[in-house]
Amino acid sequence: MRSRPAQPGSDPAADVAAVDFSTAASTVARSLRLATAELLDVLPGTSRTGTEVARVLEIDINLAWKLLVLARPAATDEGATEALRRVPGPGGIRILLQAAASKGVSDSTIARLSQAFTDYQRLVDKHAGDRASLESLLIHASGTASGEDLAIRRAAYRANSSIVGVQAETQLAAYIFWPERDAQGQPSSAAAILRGLVGFSRLRADVSWIIGKGRRTDERGQAYGQPRLTPVDPETAAECGGVPLVRLLSCGEIPPVERSYLPDGTSIDRILGGPVGKGSRFTYFLAETIRPGLAKPGDPNHPVLKLATSSHTPIGLQVVDVLFHRDLPPMGAIRAGLASELGGISAAFTPDAQRLTIHGAHQFESHGSDISGMTVPGLPKYGQALADLCTRLGVQLSDFQAYRIKVAYPPIPCAILFERDMSPS
Fold it and tell me: Which of 64, 288, 401, 411 lies 20 to 30 angstroms, CA to CA, from 191?
Protein backbone atom coordinates (compact mmCIF):
# COMPACT_ATOMS: atom_id res chain seq x y z
CA MET A 1 0.00 0.00 0.00
CA ARG A 2 1.12 3.58 -0.61
CA SER A 3 0.52 6.77 1.37
CA ARG A 4 0.05 10.28 0.07
CA PRO A 5 2.22 13.10 1.45
CA ALA A 6 0.51 15.70 3.56
CA GLN A 7 -0.99 18.57 1.60
CA PRO A 8 0.57 21.99 2.07
CA GLY A 9 -1.63 24.79 3.44
CA SER A 10 -2.78 26.52 6.57
CA ASP A 11 -3.48 24.73 9.80
CA PRO A 12 -7.06 23.34 9.58
CA ALA A 13 -7.53 23.60 13.33
CA ALA A 14 -6.87 27.34 13.19
CA ASP A 15 -9.29 27.78 10.28
CA VAL A 16 -12.05 25.88 12.08
CA ALA A 17 -11.88 28.43 14.88
CA ALA A 18 -12.46 31.26 12.39
CA VAL A 19 -15.46 33.46 13.05
CA ASP A 20 -16.85 33.02 9.54
CA PHE A 21 -18.85 29.79 9.28
CA SER A 22 -18.53 29.45 5.50
CA THR A 23 -14.75 29.68 5.64
CA ALA A 24 -14.54 27.15 8.47
CA ALA A 25 -16.95 24.75 6.74
CA SER A 26 -15.01 24.94 3.46
CA THR A 27 -11.75 24.27 5.30
CA VAL A 28 -13.12 21.23 7.10
CA ALA A 29 -14.77 19.90 3.95
CA ARG A 30 -11.48 20.19 2.05
CA SER A 31 -9.60 18.45 4.87
CA LEU A 32 -12.11 15.59 4.94
CA ARG A 33 -12.05 15.21 1.17
CA LEU A 34 -8.23 14.95 1.05
CA ALA A 35 -8.05 12.56 4.01
CA THR A 36 -10.79 10.21 2.78
CA ALA A 37 -9.44 10.29 -0.79
CA GLU A 38 -6.01 9.33 0.58
CA LEU A 39 -7.54 6.38 2.42
CA LEU A 40 -9.30 5.18 -0.72
CA ASP A 41 -6.09 5.55 -2.74
CA VAL A 42 -4.17 3.17 -0.51
CA LEU A 43 -6.84 0.46 -0.49
CA PRO A 44 -6.24 -2.47 -2.84
CA GLY A 45 -8.23 -2.75 -6.08
CA THR A 46 -9.37 -0.10 -8.54
CA SER A 47 -13.16 -0.26 -8.19
CA ARG A 48 -14.54 2.59 -6.13
CA THR A 49 -18.11 1.50 -5.54
CA GLY A 50 -19.84 1.29 -2.20
CA THR A 51 -19.97 -2.49 -2.47
CA GLU A 52 -16.23 -2.77 -3.17
CA VAL A 53 -15.19 -0.39 -0.40
CA ALA A 54 -17.48 -2.18 2.07
CA ARG A 55 -15.95 -5.53 1.07
CA VAL A 56 -12.33 -4.39 1.33
CA LEU A 57 -12.73 -2.61 4.67
CA GLU A 58 -15.34 -5.08 5.96
CA ILE A 59 -17.71 -2.28 6.95
CA ASP A 60 -21.41 -1.56 6.44
CA ILE A 61 -22.25 -0.45 2.90
CA ASN A 62 -23.94 2.74 4.14
CA LEU A 63 -20.74 3.73 5.90
CA ALA A 64 -18.81 2.93 2.73
CA TRP A 65 -21.04 5.21 0.65
CA LYS A 66 -20.56 8.06 3.13
CA LEU A 67 -16.81 7.63 2.73
CA LEU A 68 -17.15 7.87 -1.06
CA VAL A 69 -19.30 11.02 -0.79
CA LEU A 70 -16.74 12.69 1.47
CA ALA A 71 -13.92 11.88 -0.97
CA ARG A 72 -15.78 13.12 -4.06
CA PRO A 73 -14.31 16.28 -5.66
CA ALA A 74 -16.72 19.25 -5.81
CA ALA A 75 -16.88 22.02 -8.39
CA THR A 76 -17.93 24.68 -5.86
CA ASP A 77 -17.56 25.46 -2.17
CA GLU A 78 -21.29 24.80 -1.77
CA GLY A 79 -20.84 21.33 -3.25
CA ALA A 80 -17.92 20.67 -0.94
CA THR A 81 -19.74 21.70 2.22
CA GLU A 82 -22.76 19.64 1.13
CA ALA A 83 -20.62 16.57 1.87
CA LEU A 84 -20.43 17.63 5.52
CA ARG A 85 -24.02 16.53 5.88
CA ARG A 86 -22.89 12.94 5.17
CA VAL A 87 -20.21 12.68 7.84
CA PRO A 88 -20.65 9.45 9.87
CA GLY A 89 -21.54 9.67 13.53
CA PRO A 90 -18.94 9.04 16.26
CA GLY A 91 -19.60 5.28 16.22
CA GLY A 92 -19.17 5.10 12.44
CA ILE A 93 -15.94 7.08 12.62
CA ARG A 94 -14.50 4.67 15.20
CA ILE A 95 -15.46 1.69 13.04
CA LEU A 96 -13.86 3.29 9.98
CA LEU A 97 -10.57 4.10 11.73
CA GLN A 98 -10.37 0.62 13.26
CA ALA A 99 -11.11 -1.00 9.89
CA ALA A 100 -8.37 1.06 8.21
CA ALA A 101 -5.85 0.05 10.89
CA SER A 102 -6.80 -3.63 10.59
CA LYS A 103 -6.08 -3.48 6.83
CA GLY A 104 -2.57 -2.17 7.35
CA VAL A 105 -3.18 1.45 6.37
CA SER A 106 -0.24 3.59 7.49
CA ASP A 107 -0.35 5.45 10.79
CA SER A 108 0.15 8.79 8.99
CA THR A 109 -2.91 8.24 6.75
CA ILE A 110 -5.06 7.20 9.72
CA ALA A 111 -3.78 10.18 11.72
CA ARG A 112 -4.78 12.62 8.96
CA LEU A 113 -8.20 11.02 8.70
CA SER A 114 -8.65 11.14 12.48
CA GLN A 115 -7.59 14.79 12.56
CA ALA A 116 -10.07 15.65 9.79
CA PHE A 117 -12.90 14.12 11.79
CA THR A 118 -11.71 15.96 14.91
CA ASP A 119 -11.80 19.24 12.95
CA TYR A 120 -15.33 18.41 11.86
CA GLN A 121 -16.41 17.97 15.49
CA ARG A 122 -14.74 21.27 16.38
CA LEU A 123 -16.74 22.89 13.58
CA VAL A 124 -19.92 21.49 15.13
CA ASP A 125 -18.97 22.67 18.62
CA LYS A 126 -17.75 26.12 17.56
CA HIS A 127 -20.40 27.17 15.05
CA ALA A 128 -23.50 25.03 15.65
CA GLY A 129 -23.53 23.33 19.04
CA ASP A 130 -24.86 20.03 17.72
CA ARG A 131 -25.15 18.12 14.45
CA ALA A 132 -28.83 18.97 13.97
CA SER A 133 -28.04 22.69 14.13
CA LEU A 134 -25.13 22.20 11.74
CA GLU A 135 -27.58 20.57 9.32
CA SER A 136 -29.71 23.70 9.41
CA LEU A 137 -26.69 25.95 8.82
CA LEU A 138 -25.58 23.85 5.85
CA ILE A 139 -29.07 23.70 4.32
CA HIS A 140 -29.12 27.49 4.00
CA ALA A 141 -25.42 28.11 3.36
CA SER A 142 -25.79 27.91 -0.44
CA GLY A 143 -29.06 29.87 -0.66
CA THR A 144 -30.75 27.06 -2.57
CA ALA A 145 -33.54 24.67 -1.66
CA SER A 146 -32.98 21.02 -0.90
CA GLY A 147 -35.01 17.94 -0.20
CA GLU A 148 -34.28 18.30 3.50
CA ASP A 149 -35.43 21.93 3.41
CA LEU A 150 -38.78 20.85 1.94
CA ALA A 151 -39.09 18.10 4.54
CA ILE A 152 -38.51 20.64 7.32
CA ARG A 153 -41.20 22.96 5.94
CA ARG A 154 -43.61 20.02 5.59
CA ALA A 155 -42.99 19.08 9.22
CA ALA A 156 -43.58 22.71 10.25
CA TYR A 157 -46.89 22.69 8.33
CA ARG A 158 -48.06 19.65 10.27
CA ALA A 159 -46.95 21.08 13.60
CA ASN A 160 -48.51 24.50 12.95
CA SER A 161 -51.77 22.88 11.83
CA SER A 162 -51.98 21.07 15.15
CA ILE A 163 -51.02 24.16 17.15
CA VAL A 164 -53.39 26.72 15.58
CA GLY A 165 -56.20 24.29 14.70
CA VAL A 166 -56.66 24.98 10.97
CA GLN A 167 -55.06 23.95 7.69
CA ALA A 168 -55.63 24.22 3.94
CA GLU A 169 -54.40 22.50 0.82
CA THR A 170 -53.65 25.63 -1.25
CA GLN A 171 -53.68 29.40 -0.85
CA LEU A 172 -54.26 31.28 -4.10
CA ALA A 173 -54.05 34.98 -4.93
CA ALA A 174 -54.49 36.33 -8.46
CA TYR A 175 -53.85 40.00 -9.31
CA ILE A 176 -55.27 41.28 -12.61
CA PHE A 177 -54.24 44.70 -13.98
CA TRP A 178 -55.83 46.36 -17.02
CA PRO A 179 -56.08 49.87 -18.53
CA GLU A 180 -59.13 52.12 -18.39
CA ARG A 181 -59.98 55.81 -18.14
CA ASP A 182 -60.79 57.65 -14.94
CA ALA A 183 -63.83 59.86 -14.27
CA GLN A 184 -62.13 62.77 -16.06
CA GLY A 185 -61.44 60.64 -19.12
CA GLN A 186 -57.69 60.43 -18.46
CA PRO A 187 -55.71 57.21 -18.96
CA SER A 188 -55.68 55.15 -15.78
CA SER A 189 -55.83 51.51 -14.69
CA ALA A 190 -57.80 49.13 -12.55
CA ALA A 191 -57.02 45.93 -10.68
CA ALA A 192 -58.94 42.92 -9.48
CA ILE A 193 -57.77 40.69 -6.66
CA LEU A 194 -59.01 37.11 -6.36
CA ARG A 195 -57.86 35.29 -3.24
CA GLY A 196 -58.86 32.35 -1.13
CA LEU A 197 -58.08 28.97 0.35
CA VAL A 198 -58.64 25.58 -1.25
CA GLY A 199 -59.54 22.70 1.08
CA PHE A 200 -59.73 24.76 4.26
CA SER A 201 -60.63 22.76 7.37
CA ARG A 202 -60.66 23.22 11.12
CA LEU A 203 -59.04 20.89 13.60
CA ARG A 204 -60.75 22.67 16.50
CA ALA A 205 -64.37 23.84 16.46
CA ASP A 206 -63.74 27.06 18.39
CA VAL A 207 -61.20 28.50 15.95
CA SER A 208 -62.07 31.60 13.93
CA TRP A 209 -59.65 32.60 11.19
CA ILE A 210 -58.78 35.92 9.52
CA ILE A 211 -59.16 35.65 5.75
CA GLY A 212 -58.57 39.22 4.65
CA LYS A 213 -57.84 42.87 5.46
CA GLY A 214 -59.36 45.78 3.58
CA ARG A 215 -57.27 48.96 3.87
CA ARG A 216 -55.06 49.89 0.95
CA THR A 217 -51.59 51.33 1.60
CA ASP A 218 -48.38 51.71 -0.35
CA GLU A 219 -44.99 50.26 0.61
CA ARG A 220 -44.54 53.08 3.15
CA GLY A 221 -47.79 52.18 4.90
CA GLN A 222 -49.51 55.33 3.63
CA ALA A 223 -53.08 55.32 2.28
CA TYR A 224 -53.03 55.19 -1.51
CA GLY A 225 -55.72 55.39 -4.18
CA GLN A 226 -59.16 53.99 -3.48
CA PRO A 227 -59.17 53.26 0.27
CA ARG A 228 -61.97 50.68 0.08
CA LEU A 229 -61.96 47.79 -2.34
CA THR A 230 -65.19 47.10 -4.22
CA PRO A 231 -66.69 43.59 -4.11
CA VAL A 232 -66.88 41.87 -7.49
CA ASP A 233 -69.99 40.01 -6.29
CA PRO A 234 -71.90 42.71 -4.33
CA GLU A 235 -74.98 40.52 -3.82
CA THR A 236 -73.03 37.78 -2.06
CA ALA A 237 -70.99 40.36 -0.13
CA ALA A 238 -74.21 41.94 1.13
CA GLU A 239 -75.45 38.53 2.32
CA CYS A 240 -72.15 38.09 4.21
CA GLY A 241 -72.07 41.40 6.09
CA GLY A 242 -69.74 43.09 3.61
CA VAL A 243 -67.18 40.29 3.38
CA PRO A 244 -66.41 40.19 -0.39
CA LEU A 245 -66.99 36.47 -0.90
CA VAL A 246 -67.81 35.24 -4.39
CA ARG A 247 -69.50 32.06 -5.52
CA LEU A 248 -66.94 31.85 -8.32
CA LEU A 249 -64.69 28.83 -7.59
CA SER A 250 -66.22 28.31 -4.14
CA CYS A 251 -67.18 24.77 -3.19
CA GLY A 252 -69.81 23.85 -0.65
CA GLU A 253 -71.82 26.26 1.45
CA ILE A 254 -70.34 29.68 2.11
CA PRO A 255 -69.02 29.55 5.68
CA PRO A 256 -70.22 31.85 8.47
CA VAL A 257 -68.14 35.03 8.34
CA GLU A 258 -68.05 38.47 9.93
CA ARG A 259 -66.41 41.85 9.29
CA SER A 260 -64.96 44.10 11.99
CA TYR A 261 -62.87 47.28 11.94
CA LEU A 262 -59.65 48.35 13.61
CA PRO A 263 -59.23 51.91 14.95
CA ASP A 264 -57.30 52.94 11.82
CA GLY A 265 -60.21 51.90 9.62
CA THR A 266 -58.78 48.58 8.49
CA SER A 267 -61.53 46.01 7.90
CA ILE A 268 -60.91 42.51 9.19
CA ASP A 269 -62.79 39.60 7.60
CA ARG A 270 -62.82 36.28 9.39
CA ILE A 271 -64.33 32.82 9.20
CA LEU A 272 -66.10 31.89 12.43
CA GLY A 273 -65.80 28.61 14.29
CA GLY A 274 -67.68 25.56 13.08
CA PRO A 275 -67.47 21.84 12.22
CA VAL A 276 -64.11 20.10 12.20
CA GLY A 277 -62.39 17.44 10.13
CA LYS A 278 -62.33 16.30 6.54
CA GLY A 279 -66.09 16.25 6.16
CA SER A 280 -66.29 19.99 6.90
CA ARG A 281 -63.58 20.98 4.40
CA PHE A 282 -64.54 23.77 2.00
CA THR A 283 -63.07 26.15 -0.57
CA TYR A 284 -63.81 29.87 -0.52
CA PHE A 285 -62.73 32.92 -2.52
CA LEU A 286 -62.96 36.67 -2.16
CA ALA A 287 -62.80 39.02 -5.14
CA GLU A 288 -62.53 42.80 -5.23
CA THR A 289 -61.58 45.61 -7.60
CA ILE A 290 -59.54 48.70 -6.84
CA ARG A 291 -58.71 51.91 -8.67
CA PRO A 292 -56.24 52.96 -9.73
CA GLY A 293 -54.68 49.56 -10.15
CA LEU A 294 -51.22 50.92 -10.93
CA ALA A 295 -49.38 54.15 -10.27
CA LYS A 296 -48.84 56.33 -13.33
CA PRO A 297 -45.56 55.69 -15.16
CA GLY A 298 -42.94 58.17 -14.03
CA ASP A 299 -44.57 58.83 -10.64
CA PRO A 300 -41.53 59.51 -8.41
CA ASN A 301 -43.43 58.44 -5.29
CA HIS A 302 -44.30 54.99 -6.70
CA PRO A 303 -41.55 53.88 -9.08
CA VAL A 304 -42.12 50.19 -8.35
CA LEU A 305 -45.23 48.01 -8.16
CA LYS A 306 -44.91 46.03 -4.95
CA LEU A 307 -47.19 43.12 -4.09
CA ALA A 308 -46.76 41.24 -0.82
CA THR A 309 -49.08 38.26 -0.45
CA SER A 310 -48.97 37.14 3.15
CA SER A 311 -49.57 33.63 4.38
CA HIS A 312 -50.53 33.04 8.00
CA THR A 313 -52.37 29.76 7.46
CA PRO A 314 -50.69 26.31 7.49
CA ILE A 315 -50.96 25.35 3.80
CA GLY A 316 -49.44 22.79 1.46
CA LEU A 317 -48.98 25.20 -1.44
CA GLN A 318 -49.07 28.97 -1.91
CA VAL A 319 -49.70 30.29 -5.44
CA VAL A 320 -49.57 33.93 -6.58
CA ASP A 321 -50.56 34.79 -10.16
CA VAL A 322 -50.03 38.29 -11.57
CA LEU A 323 -51.64 39.22 -14.91
CA PHE A 324 -50.89 42.35 -16.94
CA HIS A 325 -53.03 43.50 -19.87
CA ARG A 326 -51.10 43.96 -23.10
CA ASP A 327 -52.40 47.54 -23.54
CA LEU A 328 -50.91 48.81 -20.28
CA PRO A 329 -47.97 51.23 -20.65
CA PRO A 330 -44.62 49.42 -20.96
CA MET A 331 -43.20 48.28 -17.64
CA GLY A 332 -39.76 47.14 -16.51
CA ALA A 333 -37.96 44.31 -14.76
CA ILE A 334 -39.67 41.77 -12.50
CA ARG A 335 -38.32 40.46 -9.19
CA ALA A 336 -39.78 37.71 -7.04
CA GLY A 337 -38.93 36.37 -3.61
CA LEU A 338 -40.11 35.09 -0.24
CA ALA A 339 -39.68 36.83 3.11
CA SER A 340 -40.54 35.90 6.67
CA GLU A 341 -42.90 38.18 8.59
CA LEU A 342 -41.80 37.02 12.03
CA GLY A 343 -41.69 40.06 14.25
CA GLY A 344 -45.08 41.29 13.11
CA ILE A 345 -43.95 43.73 10.39
CA SER A 346 -45.36 43.23 6.91
CA ALA A 347 -42.74 42.47 4.29
CA ALA A 348 -44.42 45.10 2.10
CA PHE A 349 -43.34 47.84 4.52
CA THR A 350 -39.83 46.54 5.16
CA PRO A 351 -36.84 47.95 3.24
CA ASP A 352 -35.10 45.34 1.08
CA ALA A 353 -31.95 45.33 3.21
CA GLN A 354 -33.95 44.65 6.39
CA ARG A 355 -36.11 41.81 5.10
CA LEU A 356 -35.63 38.32 6.46
CA THR A 357 -35.37 36.68 3.05
CA ILE A 358 -36.09 32.96 2.69
CA HIS A 359 -33.81 31.63 -0.01
CA GLY A 360 -34.52 28.92 -2.53
CA ALA A 361 -38.08 28.06 -1.48
CA HIS A 362 -40.03 29.79 -4.25
CA GLN A 363 -40.42 29.03 -7.95
CA PHE A 364 -41.02 31.75 -10.54
CA GLU A 365 -42.79 31.00 -13.84
CA SER A 366 -43.58 33.13 -16.88
CA HIS A 367 -46.65 31.79 -18.70
CA GLY A 368 -46.97 34.45 -21.38
CA SER A 369 -50.50 34.52 -22.80
CA ASP A 370 -51.06 30.79 -22.22
CA ILE A 371 -53.25 31.41 -19.19
CA SER A 372 -56.25 29.17 -19.73
CA GLY A 373 -54.01 26.13 -19.20
CA MET A 374 -52.65 27.31 -15.82
CA THR A 375 -53.71 24.85 -13.15
CA VAL A 376 -54.11 24.95 -9.39
CA PRO A 377 -54.39 21.76 -7.29
CA GLY A 378 -57.97 21.28 -6.19
CA LEU A 379 -59.32 23.85 -8.70
CA PRO A 380 -59.82 22.01 -11.99
CA LYS A 381 -61.83 24.94 -13.43
CA TYR A 382 -59.39 27.70 -12.45
CA GLY A 383 -58.54 28.72 -16.02
CA GLN A 384 -62.21 28.97 -16.98
CA ALA A 385 -63.00 30.86 -13.79
CA LEU A 386 -60.32 33.43 -14.62
CA ALA A 387 -61.81 33.83 -18.08
CA ASP A 388 -65.30 34.30 -16.58
CA LEU A 389 -63.97 36.84 -14.09
CA CYS A 390 -62.28 38.82 -16.88
CA THR A 391 -65.51 38.82 -18.88
CA ARG A 392 -67.34 40.19 -15.84
CA LEU A 393 -64.69 42.93 -15.61
CA GLY A 394 -65.07 43.81 -19.29
CA VAL A 395 -61.75 42.42 -20.53
CA GLN A 396 -60.56 39.25 -22.27
CA LEU A 397 -58.24 36.74 -20.62
CA SER A 398 -56.36 36.21 -23.89
CA ASP A 399 -55.15 39.84 -23.72
CA PHE A 400 -53.04 39.25 -20.60
CA GLN A 401 -49.48 38.12 -19.86
CA ALA A 402 -49.22 35.96 -16.75
CA TYR A 403 -46.53 35.34 -14.15
CA ARG A 404 -46.68 32.85 -11.29
CA ILE A 405 -44.82 32.39 -8.02
CA LYS A 406 -45.38 29.31 -5.88
CA VAL A 407 -44.03 27.92 -2.62
CA ALA A 408 -44.56 24.45 -1.21
CA TYR A 409 -45.33 24.42 2.52
CA PRO A 410 -44.51 28.11 3.10
CA PRO A 411 -43.17 28.81 6.58
CA ILE A 412 -45.66 31.01 8.44
CA PRO A 413 -45.89 33.89 8.75
CA CYS A 414 -44.34 34.82 5.42
CA ALA A 415 -45.09 36.79 2.26
CA ILE A 416 -44.51 36.09 -1.43
CA LEU A 417 -43.04 39.25 -2.95
CA PHE A 418 -43.64 40.38 -6.52
CA GLU A 419 -42.06 43.63 -7.69
CA ARG A 420 -42.04 45.25 -11.12
CA ASP A 421 -40.49 48.53 -12.19
CA MET A 422 -43.19 50.91 -13.37
CA SER A 423 -41.03 52.19 -16.22
CA PRO A 424 -38.88 50.24 -18.69
CA SER A 425 -35.20 50.13 -17.81
Answer: 411
Indicate the burial class of 343 (C-beta count within 10 angstroms; 0-12, 13-18, 19 or more).
exposed
Please name which of 418, 193, 423, 401 lies closest in space to residue 296, comparing C-alpha atoms.
423
Mean pLDDT split into 10-residue runs, the chain, 425 residues: 42 54 85 91 78 90 90 68 84 92 92 92 85 73 61 92 94 96 88 92 90 65 65 90 84 80 81 84 90 85 89 95 95 92 78 81 87 83 89 93 95 93 87
CA distances from 29 to 22, 82, 83 (A): 10, 8, 7
Number of structural domains the chain divides into: 2
Write out the residue range of the structural domain in which residue 86 sits.
Answer: 12-142
Parallel, antiparallel or unpaired: strands 414-421 and 334-340: antiparallel
- Residues 137 and 165 reside in one and the same domain: no
Q: Which residue type is seen at 17? A: A
- Contact 116/28 with Cβ under 8 angstroms? yes
3-state secondary structure of 230: strand
- Cβ atoms of 166 and 312 closer than 8 Å: no
Cα diameter, the chain: 91
pTM of full prediction above 0.85: no
